[in-house]
């Protein structure tokens, strides 16, 4: 359509691509948007490429589905709480349990497609023809902390990849088994999966953990089909993660301690894992709480906290965003839709943002950026803490006292719009 308009000479003005790019980057630095998605990757790596060109996404940039005049793309979402698969005693992650839960949830979402209410016929058409679902996660940072892994460590990067490999394998298996019983989705023939090509094949990645038998599964998929065209779409989980007391989706901790203001009042939200560790070290006190508040939830400048604790609880502002993008690309080989990846940048400028975008594009991401979160390197405004110091009373007792995060005090508030601007999962 664009080329036809151009050929007809309908253009009123020609603007250099670099000028448009500069305006986009300027807007992102000032407002955090527009979001950045890459149409080439979204289409080249889509299991719906046999349907046509994917031209749009959703509010949270994790849904990549085909639309047409008689189809409104619909996705049926569920998030998996990763901390529930950590054995606290052995400090091991239970991949078999993750497989079992994912298999079950895939079946549940298929049932949702069958019995759901559709406000318009176009939505029903899309859902029934292609049967897309979107599995996501929450609490990845909590999982790393519970296992004693630094967010940027090689161990965390390996676990990140293996978690999503397991979820994708389990969901593919469940979808294949459902196809044996109920038949494949109606547009399966001609899809990459029908040719034995799964998401990682479209990425050109064939280095797996060795935990799962991909070759046998692909042969069975070619023979029996799949019940769903799409399976994974990690969403923000801004609401449900608060209900379950987890950190959002696959993000690092935004802050270790901060004051949240809602219509219900003002209260402190804490990183329970950090407090548990500080209690064990005999370092948690009212004074320590105020010290962390003074540093805006960061512990990097607090001399009494050991280095290994500082490394463990770096906030997302203190983590190299290159590593965030690398981890997104690592798990991306097992994500057949896309992922809501925010970027956090201190002292953002056009050069930094441009470099970040091109790096993400070269890594093969479909979603290059959801929100761009920015802040200055130095902030003159400090948190208000109690000036009158109470006696330095070290908190004693069981570590589970750190569970008092006051999360139940959160109420829907116009003062916290970000808590509502998200997918329900």
Task: Explain what you see.
The chain is α/β, with parallel strands linked by helices. Among the domains are: 35-224, Anaerobic Ribonucleotide-triphosphate Reductase Large Chain; 255-314 and 394-425, no CATH class. It contains 15 helices and ten strands. It has a two-stranded antiparallel ribbon. A two-stranded parallel ribbon has the order 2-5. A hairpin with a 4-residue loop joins strand 3 (86-87) and strand 4. The longest helix has 29 residues, at 154-182. Residues 387-417 have low confidence and may be disordered.
The helical percent reads: 25-40%
What fold name stands as the CATH topology of one domain? Anaerobic Ribonucleotide-triphosphate Reductase Large Chain
How are the strands of the largest sheet arranged?
1-9
Number of strands: 10
Rg on CA atoms, Å: 23 Å
Report the portion of residues in β strands.
5-15%
Give the class-level CATH name of one domain: Alpha Beta
Shape: globular
CATH architecture of one domain: Alpha-Beta Barrel
Poorly predicted runs of 5 or more residues: 387-417
Distance between the termini: 36 Å
Derived from helix and strand composition plus strand pairing, the structural class reads: alpha/beta
Mean pLDDT: 91
Sketch the major β-sheet.
2 strands, antiparallel
* H-E string: HHEHEEEHHEHHHHHEEHHHHEHEE
Individual helix count: 15
């Amino acid at each position: 359509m664009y080329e036809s308009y151009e050929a007809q000479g309908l253009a009123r003005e020609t603007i250099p691509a670099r000028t448009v790019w500069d305006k986009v980057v300027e807007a992102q630095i000032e407002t955090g948007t527009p979001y950045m998605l890459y149409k080439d990757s979204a289409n080249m790596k889509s299991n719906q490429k046999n349907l046509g060109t994917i031209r749009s996404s959703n509010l949270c940039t994790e849904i990549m589905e085909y639309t047409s005049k008689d189809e409104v793309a619909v996705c049926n979402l569920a998030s998996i709480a990763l901390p529930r698969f950590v054995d606290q005693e052995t400090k091991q992650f239970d991949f078999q349990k993750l497989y079992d839960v994912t298999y079950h949830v895939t079946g549940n979402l298929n049932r949702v497609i069958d019995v759901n209410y559709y406000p318009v016929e176009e939505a029903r058409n899309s859902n029934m023809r292609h049967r897309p679902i979107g599995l996501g996660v929450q609490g990845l940072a909590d999982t790393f902390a519970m296992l004693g892994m630094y967010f940027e460590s090689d161990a965390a990067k390996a676990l990140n990849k293996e978690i999503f490999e397991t979820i994708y394998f389990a969901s593919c298996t469940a979808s294949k088994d459902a196809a044996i019983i109920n038949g494949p989705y109606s547009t399966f023939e001609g899809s990459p999966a029908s040719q034995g090509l799964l998401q990682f094949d479209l990425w050109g990645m064939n280095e797996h953990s060795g935990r799962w038998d991909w070759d046998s599964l692909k042969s069975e998929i070619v023979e029996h089909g799949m019940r769903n065209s799409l399976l994974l779409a990690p969403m923000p989980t801004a609401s449900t993660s608060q209900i379950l007391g987890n950190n959002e989706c696959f993000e690092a901790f935004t802050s270790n301690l901060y004051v949240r203001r809602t219509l219900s009042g003002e209260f402190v939200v804490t990183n329970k894992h950090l407090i548990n560790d500080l209690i064990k070290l005999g370092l948690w006190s009212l004074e320590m709480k105020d010290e962390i508040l003074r540093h805006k939830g960061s512990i990097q400048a607090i001399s009494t906290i050991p280095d290994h604790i500082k490394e463990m609880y770096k906030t997302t502002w203190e983590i190299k965003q290159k590593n965030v993008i690398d981890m997104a690309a690592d798990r991306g080989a097992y994500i057949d839709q896309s992922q809501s990846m925010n970027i956090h940048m201190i002292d953002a400028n056009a050069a930094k943002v441009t470099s970040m975008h091109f790096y993400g594009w070269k890594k093969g991401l479909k979603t290059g950026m959801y929100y761009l979160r920015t802040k200055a390197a130095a902030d003159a405004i400090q948190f208000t803490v109690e000036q009158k110091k109470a006696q330095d009373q070290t908190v004693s007792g069981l570590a589970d006292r750190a569970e008092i995060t006051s999360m139940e005090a959160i109420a829907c508030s116009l003062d916290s719009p970000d808590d509502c601007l998200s997918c329900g999962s």
